[in-house]
């Protein structure tokens, strides 16, 4: 379930960043209001995801995927230029995010250990 909240947080963050660009330095009312809404929603969803995820993994995925999406939006919507260095740099970020995910989700393992320890100590008291 935490991956759903994290995915939504990423989408709202990307929408907020896009709205920020469209706000023209906060001089356009509707994009400015949308930016605030999207960013607040993004952080709320990220906070919910962090209840059951390691912050290092969640933040790496959140920022890494967000960078990829916003780069594509910049290229497709705002005609921003992509060059070799940008593409390689983003590729390194994606590799780092994938590597973090393969490093294991220690939050779930720690939670399981704590639950087992509590169960054992409660059983010993009985």
From TrEMBL:
Entry membrane topology: Multi-pass membrane protein
Residue stretches spanning the membrane: 29-50, 57-78, 84-102
Q: Which domain of life is it from?
A: Bacteria
Q: Which GO terms describe its molecular function?
A: transmembrane transporter activity
Matches recorded under InterPro entries: EmrE-like (IPR037185), Small_drug/metabolite_transptr (IPR000390), Small_multidrug_res (IPR045324)
Q: Write the record's keywords in alphabetical order, separated by commas.
A: Cell membrane, Membrane, Transmembrane, Transmembrane helix, Transport
Q: Which GO terms describe its cellular component?
A: plasma membrane
The molecule here is called: Multidrug efflux SMR transporter
Phylogenetic classification of the source organism = Bacteria, Bacillati, Bacillota, Bacilli, Bacillales
């Amino acid at each position: 379930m935490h991956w759903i909240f994290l995915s939504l947080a990423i989408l709202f963050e990307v929408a907020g960043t896009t709205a920020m660009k469209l706000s023209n330095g906060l001089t356009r009312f509707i994009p400015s209001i949308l930016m605030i809404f999207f960013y607040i929603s993004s952080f709320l969803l990220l906070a919910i995801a962090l209840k059951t995820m390691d912050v290092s993994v969640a933040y790496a995925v959140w920022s890494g995927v967000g960078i990829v999406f916003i780069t594509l939006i910049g290229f497709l919507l705002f005609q921003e230029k992509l060059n070799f260095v940008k593409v390689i740099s983003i590729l390194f970020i994606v590799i780092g995010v994938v590597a973090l995910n393969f490093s294991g989700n220690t939050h779930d393992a720690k939670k399981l250990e704590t639950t087992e320890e509590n169960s054992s100590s409660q059983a010993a008291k009985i």
